[in-house]
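Checklist before submission:
- one chain only
- standard amino acids only
- sequence pasted in full

Submission:
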Amino acid sequence: MDPRTPCLIGIAQRTIRDQPGPEPLDLWESVAREAAEDARLPLGRLDSIQVVYTDSWQYDSPTGRLAERLGATPRHQSYSKVSGTAPQLLVGEAAARIAAGELDCALITGAEALATRRAYRQAGEHVPWSHAADPKPPYGWERPPHPAELAHELFLPVHTYAIMETARRAAAGMTVEEEMLDRGRMMAPMTEVAAANPYAWRRSVRTPEELVKGNRFVGWPYTRNTVAVMEVDQAAAVVLASAELADRLGVPDERRVHLRGWAYAEDTWEVAARPALGSSQAIGAAAKAAFRRAGLGLGDMDALDLYSCFAVALRQACDAIGLDPFDRRGLTVTGGLPYAGGPSSDYVLHSTATMAGLLRARPGHGLVTGVGMHLTKHTYAVWSSEPGGLLGDATPVFTASGVPVVDAYAGPAAVAGYTVAHGRDGGPEKGILVVDLPDGGRVHAHVLEPELLADAMSRELVGQRVELVTDGRLNVATW
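Returned file contents:
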């Protein structure tokens, strides 16, 4: 084996259920120390410290403060942007630098303490955390929402993903009721995995009916129990090292997990620009490239963790890679973002650490996927107890081309996908549509009349002919 071959040698996870809990910096330090101990690596030996963006708090120097806490002087530091693909991008970068001989080890960590922030807010208290950035930096978008999306209040994932879900539902020929029941059947086994995961946020087994009936809608047709739970206190860390360093540290072969191959691909950044709202070419391209680089296929995988922020993310992935949603291997090793926990950009560190633990216990191969933004960014990574394959990098193997989207339009159109936004009281507030224009373009629109909102939730609205009026900024639909 090449002495520069990268391998994962340290893992750690932590979940804090008693609030208020520690701040993110404390959590980073805790899991970093535990992962380094698992790797038999002295903290002062760290070559690289990389941190996943945290929504909980804006520090003045995230990686610098962590390095100071750990007593480390790494020659490489990195702090990511907001994205569910960020952990894999950092892991991939670290592996590539190790393989190139630029580094011999790296720590990648991330944490959220959004449950604690909520506890302070509910108590009417300010968060007493350290090293606040001053001035506060801009939010860590790679790209902010399009002005037309902002005008129509289409920037929350619970709405964008729901629009894609309704488009897929219509394309699949499912009724509203059939989609909901199928979603419950697909996600109920995930609650069983979460119940057995000591790090999971929600550890109660739920029936399909409990998941989709009897709890409030958040972005119709999604119920609260079938979407990612973000207000969690969770942290994870992994340590990568060269084979040569792992040898010197005395890490046994059976405790090394190898990144056999990974790939990155992009759909359009604006949901309305997707050629087909309910499907993804980028997912299939990322999976194909990752498997090719790994020298393995879907059938070789012993375990799977598909990014599960919303049901349509799972469904589009299954559609694209030819996976039965009810495959005997299951769709998650953690319980998924709705049940294990969805700590903002950090989840893939948890799924990667969990997968590494499984491959240590039972040799084989595992697939871990990531999703960023509004089903825009996709990472597919093949991990294995056996070295081999080609690493890959963050160069997109596919970048989607979009259909034109206009800001304002008045006249006839047809619904391509939609959702009904609900308030915290469970009541419908407005409909948000993506509509097809006669010339092949797309536009956003609101639905405001209560009787039309009720109609939209009672039947399939995709394909419905609508009439739009506009004030030049906001488009409103009726039928």
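Reviewer check: The radius of gyration is 22 Å.
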